[in-house]
Amino acid sequence: MSVILIINKKSEEDVHLEFLVEEFSAKECLETILPKILSPNITYKIHDFRGKSDLIKKLPDRLKGYKAWIPQDYKIIVLVDRDNEDCTKLKDKLEKIARETGFMTQSNRKNQKAFQLLNRIAIIVG
Question: What's the pTM?
Answer without folding.
Answer: 0.88
